[in-house]
């Protein structure tokens, strides 16, 4: 009985994380029933991933910025600007598509250096600098495109947004073999990593989460990955953007959880003064965060442009708000210091699912906006309530 | 024939676990200047907060009689309406509003919701004349110095028909000239029949203007002295402030003092906002291996400013001077450089400057020394737990686990986390700023033990404290600091509370710089 109780207490301490997953599952199940099974059809799941990839990528960068206690309102405009530059480079300057990709990521870095300088070293609040960036980069987009659209892009470039990894089954197999392989490999790595870190903890004689909970978590996560693998394999295989997104998530989740840099970001967001007095180079870390955000925005811009096969002066409008909403639904604190990369990804998926499900159901965009707004408010209200109940943090 | 404007009778105020005031009575005569003095934390400010309604009636025991009527203020607004106005140490003016707007803030000169600017500025000018301030009432408050801001606060009090003016350390932030002007003003107001209560550390000022002085110590009333009839010397007041038994509240310790570790020479620091004001003046201090050195000074004397400016220029403007480590000149102008040279600074304000309250114990402890538990930029989180566990046991941090949030710990345990953080960085010299502030007696004893242990390990420890008995109890040598200047270097044998207090309240000699 006491084992049960300790497990229950542990669950309580993980309420935020567990609550987020339950919310995601509940929304999925709701739409699966409401759309009479369309939501989890292989083609829809594939589309869901592809069409939300750029928001999810932006959310990964945004959560780091928000953990540090800042915000970035300019990402939507940077997405458009980088798309425009890609269009100009490829179609007007005849730069090869791969070189254009590298150059565009460089453009993103320069944007980050520009904004990071004003925020970190000049001391202007990020809200102002990136609000200015939102306007300037939108303006630069329109100048670069001369208010025209640029289209089409070469096929290799388009593959970045809407392509799939090659079908090793020759298009005839029931389940695409490469995707199944990747899925099984990912699952195996996940399980191995989970067991390894648990053993390491045991070796250090460190108190750990209850065994039952560990197994449950592992089985659940592996199950989800295998299920999505199965769905993707029975459609067209692995979207290239999923590979990009997956790598990005794994790397940045690790950086935020276990790197010195990540610790410094949490320290700055949690208490800037204490971090500075502990020798954290607060300005440099802030600067690097915005450079990073610039590169990530550029990546999102490239993927978005490739997907639409179009560089458009109005591209990326409102992306910053979707990314910020994803981060806050994912449990980040407005005041900084709290948040996770995986939380932001789940938050982004919740928004994506809502968009997708409501579109299938034929709900008008006006109601979609309304409902997304209420979901954001409810998620943060739940956080605040939780915090108050546990007696403040 | 009572001439008392105010009588506070048997005031007792309790905070969870602490009796801040115990049966304190105070009688203030009409038209007098009544000084209240005592060490930091003695209960002076608490008493004034009880009087002004910051702590509403009902949260304390006792009775307050103002102008022969029993009063029970529920808020500052009520006390102000009755004519009791308190001016806090931290001025409460809005920097971007004009002098006149500040004076009438919350009490606007209006007709039907619209501000009558002519009346506002005219009335403000009259009030400014009363406090001897010649500035135009439409000047923004941020454009005048601290001394003048203090006068604006008084003008604001006068606008409220003040009968009893309470000044909390009115000259703490002022230079000599502004202080002198303020004291003159207080006497002038006394001539106009306004009664004042003045909390002050500065005994020369008390002697200059006060009619009576009440001494509070450890939340208890010690005595009220009449400055006119008895010939009260500063020594007499100091005795009242510090006279308590030291007892054995400090662990025994035999020092083993070695070579000099750190020396700071000709250290000068200016105020970060008021660039004209020198906060630290030509300070010279040193600490040797195994030595515990105290810095004794009253609030605002420049103790913390000295420490923080040495530690990575974390405070101040236009800092000059030299820092020697093991005899070699070193650069400590960034926190990272200071840490690299083996310095550590544990702040007096744990919550604002010491801890990340929303993070757990282990991450707070590891923050300074992440490089010690990481490879190529990746932190070994298992080792981190092991390290934190070690400190939890050795420092006796009372928490369910090292994953408990720092913000949920008691003051004493938070302090132990801060100390663990700096001990893990393995510094040569630790500067501990008010290491026992807000900590209960038992935990204090533990902290003293830790300090002794650090010294025995061959580290140099600098302890900054407002509590003289604490410094006398644990230090091998004590510097006194007054108005930014080191006024004495007192070896253990000579350190008595009276002797230290003398050097903390007056300069040894007036030099002409």
Automatic annotation (TrEMBL), chain A:
It is a multi-pass membrane protein. Its main location: membrane. Keywords: Cell inner membrane, Cell membrane, Membrane, Sugar transport, Transmembrane, Transmembrane helix, Transport. One of its GO terms (molecular function) is transmembrane transporter activity. The chain crosses the membrane at residues 20-43, 55-83, 95-114, 120-140, 174-191, 211-233, 240-261, 287-311, 323-355. InterPro entries: ABC_transp_permease (IPR001851). It is found in: Cell membrane. Pfam families: BPD_transp_2 (PF02653). GO terms for cellular component: plasma membrane. Part of the binding-protein-dependent transport system for D-xylose. Probably responsible for the translocation of the substrate across the membrane. This is Xylose transport system permease protein XylH.
From TrEMBL, chain B:
The keyword Chloroplast does not apply. GO terms for molecular function: ATP binding; ATP hydrolysis activity. Keywords: ATP-binding, Cell membrane, Membrane, Nucleotide-binding, Repeat, Sugar transport, Translocase, Transport. It is found in: Cell membrane. It comes from the Bacteria. It is a peripheral membrane protein. GO terms for cellular component: plasma membrane. Residues 6-243, 262-508 form the ABC transporter domain. The keyword Cell inner membrane does not apply. PANTHER family: CARBOHYDRATE TRANSPORT ATP-BINDING PROTEIN MG119-RELATED (PTHR43790), XYLOSE IMPORT ATP-BINDING PROTEIN XYLG (PTHR43790:SF1). This is Sugar ABC transporter ATP-binding protein.
């Amino acid at each position: 009985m006491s084992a049960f109780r300790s497990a229950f207490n542990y669950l309580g301490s993980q309420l935020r994380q567990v609550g987020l997953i339950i919310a995601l599952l509940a929304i999925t199940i709701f739409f699966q029933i409401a759309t009479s099974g369309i939501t989890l059809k292989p083609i829809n799941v594939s589309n869901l991933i592809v069409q939300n990839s750029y928001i999810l990528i932006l959310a990964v960068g945004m959560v780091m910025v928000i953990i540090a206690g800042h915000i970035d309102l300019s990402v939507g405009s940077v997405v458009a600007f980088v798309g425009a530059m890609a269009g100009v480079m490829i179609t007007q300057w005849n730069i090869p598509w791969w070189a254009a990709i590298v150059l565009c990521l460089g453009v993103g870095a320069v944007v980050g250096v520009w904004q990071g300088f004003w925020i970190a070293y000049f001391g202007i609040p990020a809200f102002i600098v990136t609000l200015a960036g939102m306007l300037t980069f939108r303006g630069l987009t329109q100048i670069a495109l001369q208010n025209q659209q640029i289209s089409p892009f070469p096929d290799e470039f388009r593959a970045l947004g809407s392509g799939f990894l090659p079908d090793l089954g020759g298009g005839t197999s029931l389940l695409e073999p490469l995707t199944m392989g990747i899925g099984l490999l990912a699952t195996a790595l996940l399980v191995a990593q989970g067991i390894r870190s648990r053993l390491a903890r045991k070796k250090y004689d460190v108190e750990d989460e209850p065994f039952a909970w560990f197994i449950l978590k592992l089985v659940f996560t592996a199950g989800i990955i295998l299920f999505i693998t199965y769905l993707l394999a029975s459609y067209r295989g692995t979207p290239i953007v999923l590979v990009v997104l997956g790598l990005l998530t794994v790397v940045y989740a690790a950086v935020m959880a276990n790197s010195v840099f990540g610790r410094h970001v949490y320290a700055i967001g949690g208490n800037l003064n204490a971090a500075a007095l502990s020798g954290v180079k607060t300005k440099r870390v802030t600067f690097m965060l915005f450079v990073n955000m610039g590169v990530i925005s550029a990546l999102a811009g490239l993927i978005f442009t490739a997907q639409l096969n179009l560089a458009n002066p109005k591209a990326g409008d409102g992306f910053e708000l979707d990314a910020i909403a994803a981060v806050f639904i994912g449990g980040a604190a407005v005041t900084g210091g709290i948040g996770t990369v995986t939380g932001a990804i789940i938050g982004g998926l919740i928004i994506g699912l809502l968009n997708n499900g409501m579109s299938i159901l034929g709900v008008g965009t006006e109601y979609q906006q309304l409902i997304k707004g209420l979901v954001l408010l409810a998620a943060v209200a739940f956080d605040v309530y939780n915090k108050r109940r546990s007696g403040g943090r | 024939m009572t001439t008392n404007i105010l009588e506070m009778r048997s005031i007792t105020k309790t905070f969870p676990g602490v009796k801040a005031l115990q049966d304190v009575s105070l009688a203030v005569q009409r038209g007098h200047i009544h000084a209240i003095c005592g060490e930091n934390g003695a209960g002076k400010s608490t008493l004034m907060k009880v009087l002004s309604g910051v702590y509403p009636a009902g949260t304390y025991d006792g009775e307050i009689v103002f102008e022969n009527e029993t009063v029970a203020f529920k808020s500052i607004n009520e006390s102000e309406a009755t004519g009791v106005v308190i001016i806090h140490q931290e001025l409460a003016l809005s920097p971007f509003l004009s002098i006149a707007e500040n004076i009438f803030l919350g009490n606007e000169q209006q007709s039907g919701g619209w501000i009558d600017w002519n009346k506002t500025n005219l009335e403000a000018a009259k009030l400014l004349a009363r406090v001897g301030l010649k500035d135009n009432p439409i000047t923004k408050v941020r454009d005048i110095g601290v001394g003048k801001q203090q006068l604006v606060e008084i003008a604001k009090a006068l606008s409220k028909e003040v009968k009893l003016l309470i000044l909390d350390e009115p000259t703490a932030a002022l230079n000599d000239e502004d202080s002198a002007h303020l004291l003159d003003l207080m006497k002038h107001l006394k001539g106009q029949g306004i009664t004042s209560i003045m909390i002050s550390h500065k005994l020369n000022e008390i002697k200059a203007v006060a009619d009576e002085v009440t001494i509070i110590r450890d939340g208890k009333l010690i005595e009220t002295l009449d400055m006119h009839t008895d010939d009260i010397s500063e020594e007499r007041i100091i005795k009242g402030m510090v006279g308590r038994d030291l007892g054995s509240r400090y662990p025994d310790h035999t020092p083993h003092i070695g070579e000099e570790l750190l020396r700071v020479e000709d250290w000068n620091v200016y105020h970060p906002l008021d660039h004209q004001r020198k906060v630290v003046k030509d300070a010279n201090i040193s600490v040797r291996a195994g030595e515990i050195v105290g810095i004794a000074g009253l609030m605002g004397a420049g103790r913390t400013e000295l420490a923080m400016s040495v530690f990575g220029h974390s405070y101040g403007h236009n800092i000059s001077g030299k820092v020697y480590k093991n005899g070699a000149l070193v650069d400590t102008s960034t926190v990272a450089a200071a840490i690299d040279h083996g310095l550590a600074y544990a702040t007096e304000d744990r919550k604002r400057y010491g801890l990340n309250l929303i993070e757990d114990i282990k991450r707070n402890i590891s923050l300074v020394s992440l490089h010690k538990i990481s490879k190529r930029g990746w932190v070994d989180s298992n080792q981190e737990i092991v390290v934190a566990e070690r400190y939890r046991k050795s420092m006796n941090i009372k928490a369910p686990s090292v994953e408990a949030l720092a913000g949920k710990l008691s003051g004493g345990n938070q302090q132990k986390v801060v100390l663990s953080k700096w001990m893990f960085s393995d510094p040569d010299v630790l500067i501990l700023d008010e290491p026992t502030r807000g900590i209960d007696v038992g935990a204090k004893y533990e902290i003293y033990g830790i300090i002794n242990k650090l010294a025995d390990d061959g580290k140099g420890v600098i302890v900054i404290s407002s509590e003289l008995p604490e410094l006398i109890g644990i230090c091998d040598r004590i510097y006194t600091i007054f108005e930014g200047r080191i006024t004495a270097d007192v070896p253990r044998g000579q350190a008595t509370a009276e002797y230290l207090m003398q050097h903390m309240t007056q300069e040894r000699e007036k030099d002409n710089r």
